[in-house]
Specification:
By secondary structure, the protein is α+β, with helices and mostly antiparallel strands. It is about 45% helix and about 20% strand. Helix 11 crosses helix 15.
Length: about 400
Amino acid sequence: MDTFNKTILDNGITLISENIPYVKSISLGFWFNVGSRDEDLKTNGITHFIEHMVFKGTKKRTAKRIAEDIEAYGGYLNAFTSKEHTCYYGRGLDVNVERTFDVIADMVQYPVFKPSEMKKELSVIIDEMNDIDDNPEELIFDKFEEVLFKGNSLSLPIIGTEDTVSAFTQDDLFDYMNKHYGFNNLVIAGAGAINHNDLIKLVDKYFTRELNHNKVSRKFVKSTKPINKKLKRPIQQVHLIIGNGTYGFNSNKRITANILSHILGEGSSSRLFQSIREKHGIGYQLNSFINSFYDISAFGVYLSTNSNQAEKAEELVYNEFKKITEKEVSVKELNKAKEYIKGNMILSMESMSSRMNRIASSEIYYKKLITVDEVVKMINEVSPEDIFTLANEILDEKLLTKVVLSADK
């Protein structure tokens, strides 16, 4: 039987785990509640830069040794920065849980941020920026949130800009890390063949530095205003996002928004796929999406097509929005979407990394574990009227933001 445990330690660290007795692997994540929305125009990109730099050496490990201490034992080590948190995580065999814990704890406590390594990593990050700029499928999502959340730090790109990142000093990184990497700002999550009491002992053993205790304070997004934005790029296709802001993790209505997204454009049986791809033969890339934060989500439809068909494709998107705001979805169609979401969620539980991510996100956003059964119950409770009401709140053409990337401006 799977076992969940949660402990808030005396130093303020929140420790959560899910023991899966029938596997031989573990997934371990150190989640700091800091992301790009905690930055401003001057510090934009510093959270992501720090995430890169902690891999470049600590007081007792070189960058090569950090990698070898995990990979030489068949493990995997990585990290990511989002707009609301930073996660350092490792996967490996259960016998190597202490080794994995030791390496990550060392990285987040004792990075050295050598100026010579900062200079090299700056070049890597600028290359990453150029890759994004060369990739319209990725760039347009950054631009959509930049426009949608204008006036709020959620509009800032996670990676920052060349100007801001180039200006960071070693002191800037240490000052920012000392401010935001606090014990009370850290959730350590583990899933797999992992013992909760062993994790508590590992915290005592490997956290040898006293981290700060700082309160996270964020400016929430009150509303979004419809904006049309056209951007010129030397590309062959026209890339388009049409969308709006909707409920975030702090609202149960986010479940309704998730189901609405599936009905509209997730999967080959969705309304938009059937209309635009199957019936009219337009657009290779097409999907709806919901990218959620604590207080708000970015909800929309993305597609790419050639310039001759772009106007028709846009018209078809608006037609589907109009249909779903004028007539309730059938119980049959709604149930199909629900089963799709539940099936994907339950299948993901076969991955220890997915389990670790799920319990960590649950703790970060809800301060408690939301079980799969509870999520299934919330999904089952969504009615056709709920979908109809939400669709009318966010899919009115007068309320929608549109971002277009094309060769013509």
